[in-house]
Write a structure and sequence with these properties.
The two termini are 16 Å apart. Strands 1, 2, 3, 4, 5, 6, 7 and 8 form an eight-stranded mixed beta sheet that branches. This protein has one domain: P-loop containing nucleotide triphosphate hydrolases (Rossmann fold), CATH 3.40.50.300. Helix 4 links the parallel strand 7 and strand 8. The longest helix is centred in the middle third of the chain and has 17 residues. It is of the alpha/beta class. It has five helices and eight strands. The radius of gyration is 17 Å and the shape is globular. The chain binds guanosine-5'-triphosphate and magnesium ion (MG). Guanosine-5'-triphosphate (GTP) binds next to helix 1.
């Protein structure tokens, strides 16, 4: 759930970039950090190994300004994609208000994408989160690579997009699709906040 401080009229939401190792999660955050004006961003924290694999997580706080009278902040996190960091992924995903699943578009990475998507659903289930209600956006990254190496967005939909959630083709290295993805997931998270509570829920 988002952190709401009614007295100070502040709202903080957590968005997690999930996906297999080397799919491009950290690259998304670097691109965002580089393009957002100074006064709208906090320090980016990256805990990585010497070869730039995420070891614990990346963290980037952004200030969206006033929305409906609340000073609104979003905190972006990435998980470490490598299989053996599952317990860290679980910690980072805890309390997420929205998720961007970054998929590697390369043909040969589809097993890894599926495994990571499965892992995400398992972790959410362990945390008692209904994955169907969590705002989710898919990003088909590395679409800049040669056509014979990658799947098209339509083909990736068949492999990964069972829920038919919003998805964006991207080249995070050059920023294509990066802000579109961020804008969409933020919009879904904020929309959910203002949605009326379903009948029957105390
Ligand atoms: N060609 C291309 N390369 C990309 C793109 N996005 C990321 N990369 C490269 O892919 C590699 C892995 O990117 P990262 O952002 O570190 O991947 P990650 O998902 O954070 O990986 P882990 O931290 O191990 O989970 C790096 O060499 C990036 O430069 C893209 O859109 N196109
Ligand atoms: Mg990373």
């Amino acid at each position: 759930m988002p952190l709401v401080n009614y007295a100070a009229r502040e709202l903080t939401c957590k968005i997690v970039y999930y996906g297999a190792g080397r799919s491009g999660k950290t690259t998304n955050l670097h691109y965002i950090y580089d393009r957002v004006p100074n006064e709208r961003r906090g320090a980016m924290v990256s805990l990585a190994t010497h070869n730039e694999r995420t070891l614990f997580f990346d963290f980037l706080p952004l200030d969206l300004g006033r929305i409906s009278g609340f000073n609104t902040r979003i905190q972006l996190y990435t998980v470490p994609g490598q299989a053996y960091y599952r317990s860290t992924r679980k910690l980072v995903l805890q309390g997420a208000d929205g998720v961007v699943f970054v998929a590697d578009s390369q043909r040969m990475q589809q097993e890894e994408n599926l495994e990571s998507l499965r892992d995400m659903h398992e972790v959410l289930a362990e945390q008692g989160v209904d994955a169907r209600t969590l705002p989710l956006v898919l990003q088909y990254n590395k679409q800049d690579l040669p056509g014979d190496l990658i799947l098209t967005p339509g083909e990736l939909d068949d492999v990964l997009n069972f829920r038919q959630v919003p998805r964006f083709a991207a080249d995070a290295l050059h920023g294509v699709g990066v802000f579109e993805t961020l804008r969409k997931v933020s919009q879904l998270v904020l929309q959910r906040l203002s949605a009326p509570v379903p009948a029957g829920i105390p």
